[in-house]
Amino acid sequence: MEQPDRIPKAALAFLRLFLRKDLLDEVTGDLQEMYALTRKKRSRLVTRLVIWYEVMHYLRPFAIRKATMHYVNPYPMYKSYLKTALRNMLRNKLHAFINITGLSVGMAVTITIALWIIDEMTYEKHFDNYSRVGRVLQNVTNNGEVQTWWSLPWPLADELRKNYGTDFSAVVLTSGVNTHLLATADEKRLNKRGLFAEPQFSSVFSLKMQAGSADALTDQASVLLSLSTAKALFGDADPIGAMLTIDRDQKMTVKVGGVYEDMPSNSEFANLDFVAAWDLLASATSWIRTIGDPWRPNAFDIYVQLNDHATFEGASARIRDAKLKKVNEALAKKKPALFIHPMSQWHLYSEFDNGIQTGGRIQYVWLFGITGAFVLLMACINFMNLSTARSEKRSKEVGIRKAIGSFRGQLINQFFTESILTAFLSLAMAVLLVMILLPSFNTITGKAVTLQWLNPLWWGAGIGFCIVIGIIAGSYPALYLSSIQSVKAIKGVNKAGRSSSLFRKTLVTTQFTISVVLIIGTTIVYQQIQYAKNRPIGYNTNGLVAVPMVNEVHKHFDAVKDALEKTGAIVSMAESASLTTDQSSSTSQLDWNGKDPDLSVDFATGGGSYDYGATVGWEIIMGRDFSRDHPSDSTALILNEAAVNYMGLKNPIGETIRWSGTPCTVIGVIKDIITRSPYEPVTPTLYYLSTWSDSYWILRINPAVSATDALAKIESAYKKYNSEVPFSYQFMDTTYALKFGDEERIATLSTMFTTLAIFISCLGIFGLSSFTAEQRMKEIGIRKVMGATVFQLWQLISVDFVVLVLVSGVIAIPLAYFAMSSWLEHYSYHVGISWWIFTAAIAGTVIVTIITVSWHTMLAAAMNPVKTLRAE
Amino acid sequence: MIETKLGDFEEVLMLIIGILGEDESYAFRIAQEFKDQTGRPVSIGAVHSTLDRLANKGFLKSELREGASDRGARKKRIYSITALGKRVIKESMEFKVALWKQYPAFSGKFNMSI
Question: Domain Transcription regulator PadR N-terminal, which positions (chain B) (predicted)?
Fold first, then answer.
């Protein structure tokens, strides 16, 4: 069956597009007759073509519809919208102020957070080989628990190159980044951070050379400097070819072979001041050359660059056992499994739990991202709430405008202009706020983010957002109010019904739910920090100072110690292999009677001179400290409680532990000292007596002497035997406090954001309460005349808001509970969540709400009823 | 010289309207008749456009009539010649006859009277 024989629909539709309305009927009729007539003689296709032909021939001036819209210059109308919008703002200064402040604070928070997130997300992106470079890590198994280690033995680099080279276009062995003393020929000395790397480092990490050659590292007597370091050392003179000594070691005298552009701050190698040759380190460091089994110490970093066809997964799988095959039997027990950590994950995904990647900083990115979104949402809610609330008041205006002859379209335009204008003013304020606040934000976060004035994406996003939020917030008054009949509007019959007030209530509840969650979250973050801070450290950090040491001074240690103690500047001092806040070495070569042969051991080791314990103030709970009275103490050990528990010793004193084969006697047990994270259990540690030159002096300043005086005396004593290395020191309490850096940073930031969130929600209910109070002015007047007290009236209005806040609290509790308990699970040493936090958070919010609302309700309640009732 | 005011096509259309009479003179039928009479096809649009122009000049008048089912019950616009229109085509013809009479080769050989 064919389609019914009729004029082609498309032809008719086309005709309708242009034909004068009054001609449509007759022309269609004619075409129909034409069709019927032609169809009798010709095929369907031809008939159709004929009809198309006829339709086309109606494209004549007389038949074409004239454009009905006559052109009106829209410019004066927009001018009028803008003018009216500005006048409206000026007339309702409070309303405009609340709107703009709230929205701009919200936008400022979001912009700041967005800047932060972008900075976090763009880490390492500046490297040309971003997607091809990775770092080799190892998972080692200690008694069934998998740990991820970042360092590797140095022969592994060659092994990877030789036997697994198909996947890699480069394998680069480097030392860790450490501070070294650089000295120029004319005795200029600076401490700079740098590393020793194999030559391909400069191409793998795409060093941008400013002078000299990136290949300079092939010569072990060459060094590459960052531009800022070159400037600092040589000023404006040409640094290429100049001589430098690293760590005043004659074996490490090098020539500057190139200068590279400083790496950006969002880089793994930010502040990398120099790169020297790995071969130089190897030839200058005796233990690297002389060590019996170079596969033992995990002390170096290995980076790889993949070939074009290789994948991280494939290469990881292939190199998995590269180390296992080479290490001795004791280390093989740890089953070291290698894998490659891609560069794109270095910054945000660098936490491993039991060998599995568990995220890392990405959690903060999410946390702040969500917070930012919520704060912005709250600000938008305010804006919408206030616009809808106020729109009811403006229905009279709409009525009159309509009566005078406004089109609906013009009213819609006017309302939209108003709300979009508000949004844009807020954006301007927000940008201003961000400019003011960014420096302090950078201090808190330790970043250097800036507003990207030239990035069109930002502008697009900002402008787009303003228009969208303006349209959303303005849609209720624009679309609803403009639709009502002018008579009704003028009479005031129009009262936006329950639905609009229910909508507002929902939004306010959402706002306060977010606020309460944020309050609870911040409180728990603070509690957790406080909890960890209150954890017994195991020694006394007050007045404890560490000074990095050099060989010359070690020889005169006793003389320095006596002199300083005599001046009364210090109470005691000792030498130490590492800072008390740090754990720099560990050993697995331990054996003792009754040790389970399968037990794999990884104990931290801490070395100190005599008086080390007394100086740091550790607490001996069994046995005794090292003493000059016992010459045999050179092979004595002191354990911490964690070690005793780990070894399962009932009676540790007098036990013999063989450390790398040397039998050592346990003479004492101390209370655990926190050397690593205050949130983690303490590592089993053994302390030994060291008599050789160590890395640090540890000094306890006499509390009776001011720190400045004491430091001055320490410095002069230090300088007496050493004029070359600049004196530097650190207070252990500040160093210890750095362990809380990340958490405190979060706490500071989340406090900031929470405060702003609460501020925004309060601004919102402040505006809403002003509106309610105004609207119910007459009611209040009448009630007052009838004998209501001010308190009763105040109650009448406030109770609505309090109920909303209580509802928010109930919703917020489970949300906050789940969010925070999962956060706390990251810390093995963490605080419990107690119910009072929830109560306090809700009570606090209610009080703030009451205070905010009271301003207007009290004004309204206290007003003389004559004033409100006089009109009408 | 007298201005004719009518084009050839216009004049033919007016004559066809006269031939078709009150019931049939709408655009489609006129176009058909034109084709039948002259053997030249013409589009309805062209005819319609000319009819419209003639109506504007006051030579034609039109009215809408209910259409039959063969045109989907669409209305049709019936054109008829106004008094002015009649005078104009008559003048046009007389003018041409006058011209013919002045043509020496044909003079007296035609006996044209209207």
Answer: 16-91
Q: Is A18 on the interface with B (CB under 8 A)?
A: no
ipTM of the complex in this document = 0.86
Domain ranges of chain B: 8-101
Contacts of B76 in chain A (CB under 8 A): 26, 29-30
User: Residues in chain B whose beta carbon is closer than 8 A to a beta carbon of chain A?
Assistant: 26-28, 32, 43-46, 48-49, 52-53, 64, 67, 70-72, 74-77
Residue of chain B whose alpha carbon sits nearest to that of A32 = B71
| Tokens of residue A728, six digits | 């530097």
| Residues of chain B with C-beta less than 8 angstroms from the C-beta of A54 | 43-45
Q: Among A12-21, A58-67, A667-676, A829-838, where is mean pLDDT lowest?
A: A58-67
The per-residue pLDDT for range B64-73, each reduced to its tens digit, is 888 777 777 8
A60 vs B32, B45, B64: nearest CB: B45
Instruction: Give me the pLDDT at residue B1, please.
Output: 32
pLDDT in tens, A455-500: 888 889 889 989 998 888 888 778 877 877 777 777 765 555 566 7
Per-residue model confidence as pLDDT tens digits over B35-66: 999 999 899 999 999 998 898 888 999 988 88
Give me the percent of chain A exceeding a pLDDT of 90: 17
Cβ–Cβ gap B71/A30 under 8 Å:
yes
Report residue A335: phi and psi, to 5°. Answer: 45, 60
Which of B28, B32, B49 is closest, CB to CB, to A63? Answer: B49
Q: Rounded to an integer, what distance in angstroms lies between the CA atom of residue A118 and that of residue A463?
A: 19
Asked if the C-beta of A50 comes within 8 angstroms of chain B's C-beta atoms, the answer is no
Please give the average per-residue pLDDT across A597-611, as a whole number.
Answer: 82
Fold of B8-101: Arc Repressor Mutant, subunit A (1.10.10)
CA of A770: how far to CAs of A17, A597, A642, A700, A773, in Å? 54, 77, 62, 61, 5
Q: What is the pLDDT of residues A733-785, one digit of tens each?
A: 888 888 887 788 888 888 888 888 888 888 888 888 888 887 788 888 888 88
> What's the rounded Cα separation, in Å, for the pair A701 and A153?
40
Who among A32, A60, A62 is closest to B72 (CB)? A32
8 A C-beta contact, residue A291 and residue A153: no
Chain B CB contacts of A41 under 8 Å are none
Nearest CA in chain A to B67: A29
Partners of A26 on chain B (C-beta within 8 Å) are 26-27, 64, 74-77
Q: Do A682 and A642 form a contact (C-beta atoms < 8 A)?
A: yes
d(CA A148, CA A139): 4
Interatomic CA distance for residues A210 and A195, integer angstroms: 19
Cα–Cα distance measured from residue A522 to residue A495, given in angstroms and rounded to the nearest whole number: 41
**Region A260-284: what's the mean pLDDT?**
89
Within a 13 Å sphere around the CA of B76, how many CA atoms are in the beta-carbon half?
Answer: 24
The CA-based diameter of chain B, rounded to the nearest angstrom, is 56
- Nearest residue to A12 (alpha-carbon basis) of A28, A33, A36: A28
Q: What is each CA distance from A293 to A157, A158, A432, A556, in whole angstroms?
A: 15, 15, 61, 35
Q: Average pLDDT, whole number, for chain A?
A: 86
Q: Cα distance from A42 to chain B (closest Cα, Å)?
A: 16
| A32 lies within 8 A of chain B by CB | yes
